[in-house]
Structure prediction request, 284 residues.
Amino acid sequence: MIEKILLADSGMGNTEKMLKVLMEIPLIQRAQVTVLHVVPPQIGAEAMTKKWEEGGKTLASAIHTLNLDAAKVTAMLREGDPKDVVCKVADEIDSDLIIMGSRGLKGLKAILDNSVSQYVFQLASQPMLLVKDDLYSIRSIRRVLVAMDPSDSAQAGLKYAIALLRDVKDSEIILVHTISNLKNKVDDAITANPASDPVLAPAVAEVKKYGIKYRCLAPEGKPGARICDLADDLNVNLLVLGSPDRRPSIAKGMPDLDRLLGESLSDYVRVYANCPVLLTRLAG
Prediction:
């Protein structure tokens, strides 16, 4: 499922640490990795040459830090607008996953401050693993929270979580259905009788096939806030959230303004979650 990974390396943040943690997972160890650094256009040949040199050093440092098998890693230095280049390269290499850093900007501020990760998420068809630049620590992935709903993208997220954890010892998947008949506060979230929930029941059946430990939670309240609260309360290492593409085919090349302005669940979680967030969608 994850055979080709694109790491968009800006020279700052936690993306390299995230990939090193992912490489502890058997599934990811088989993947080919492309490490991309984008050099924005500059005014004047001298400035451009300097930026290329800096970019080359950043890329070399990233490759050295990652310490990957040379046969499984490709370094790529490109010029252009990072938002456009990341999307283009992801399509060129047919990436299964994009890893990017995020400043956690929200709404209009993300637009005005030229948030690369936000725009790439809007326009890319691949799942994205977003890692905040200011996360305190990135830990081995053992406990994964999967936000469930009836959408195909949520089902895709569950499949990703299972694929990541199926060969990881002592791992756990936490299945959360925030829009549910089971009304419980976060502190009293249920751990039994998921069969009474039409979303959790089939998810549990799927997880059981692989012998992965699981819990089911169905807290009441606003979905975004409850998901983030649970991620904190349960000390999860990764949050997986399906993000359906609401845009019609004619608008595939344009950002979804509702999301850009912070009017979506995925945007809320992207901004407020205190752990890495894997945003999944079905390839269009």
About this structure: The domain at 143-280 is CATH 3.40.50.620 (Rossmann fold). The first helix runs from residue 15 to 22.
